[in-house]
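ugh ok fine here u go
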Amino acid sequence: MTDAQISQQLREEYAKLKVLAGRVREWVGRPMGDGAWLAEYRKTFEHFRAHLHKQLALEEAGDFLPHVVARRPTLSREVDHLREEHREILSMADEMYTELNQLQPGNTAGWEDCRLRLRHLLSAIDHHGRTENNLVVSVFGIDIGAGD
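structure:
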């Protein structure tokens, strides 16, 4: 895969994730609603989580991270750190999914806890995206838009 193809693929995936993260953020800003509200939020979060899994799997198994190391072997430690962040982010997302599925309508204290944890997850994803974008810029000279 060429540098341009890698950057285009990453740009497209980050754009999709950004839209889905925006939907999750929008819901996090709301007070807890009824059972239908909670079911809809679970659906929104599951869509976001599924895309997050897909994107990080593409980075791991696809050409992106191996290509970075091939181009700049001295960055292997940074790439290893990104891989560890992938595992941590996916673990947080999976735990959040479980917690949301166990949350009962009317449990406002539980929703407040979820909101805090969701904000932490979104912050971790934002930080990871900025780090990854800086790596791509330094290796390929292309901004993938992940740090916006």
